[in-house]
Amino acid sequence: MASRNVTVTRIRPASAFKVGILMALVGFVAWLIAVSLLYVAVDAAGVVDSLNSLIGGVGGETAIDFPLVIALAALAGAIGVVFVAVMAPLTAFIYNALADLVGGLGLELTDYR
What we know:
The protein is an alpha+beta fold. 72% of the residues lie in helices and 12% in strands.
């Protein structure tokens, strides 16, 4: 097994943006699936009906339903995607500045054949 040492001295901010946005979108889909499954479980346990009857007793109507929960989860997830889209290139820029200062990140690559 041959190994060699390499140093990562620059990360392109555009590349970090592309990878970050794709990972954030995958996380967004996983977030929506998790919220959907959690809502189904909580609804099956009767918690949603109890909350709606509590809210209805105070003077409101059915307030918590699946479309509302998904809309709020989608809003929170979209905010997270935008945050990652902004932070990924900024993080690459900060890494590049620090790598110029200290020399970068050392990696050891091993060839398994």
